[in-house]
Amino acid sequence: MMEEQEALDLAADWADISRGLRKDLGNQLYSQWIKPIQLGSLCKQSGTLDLYLPNEFAANWVSDRFADRLSLAWKIARPDIRTVKISVLPGRRAMPGLRLGREDGRRAANDGAPITQPGDALGMGAAELGALGQGPIGLDPSLTFASFVTGAANILASNAAQRMAATETPQFAPLYLKAATGQGKTHLLHAIGHAYLANHQRARIFYCSAERFMVEFVQALRQNQTIEFKARLRGFDLLLVDDIQFIIGKASAQEELLYTIDALLAEGKRLVFAADRAPQALDGVEQRLLSRLSMGLVADIQPADIELRRSILEHRLQRFSPSHVPGDVVEFLARTINRNVRELVGGLNKLIAYAQLTGQAVSLQLAEEQLTDILSANRRRITIDEIQRTVCQFYRVDRTEMASKRRARAVVRPRQVAMYLAKVLTPRSYPEIGRKFGGRDHSTVIHAVRLIEDLRTRDADMDGDVRSLLRQLES
Question: What is the Cα–Cα distance from 385 to 408, expressed in whole angstroms?
Answer without folding.
Answer: 22
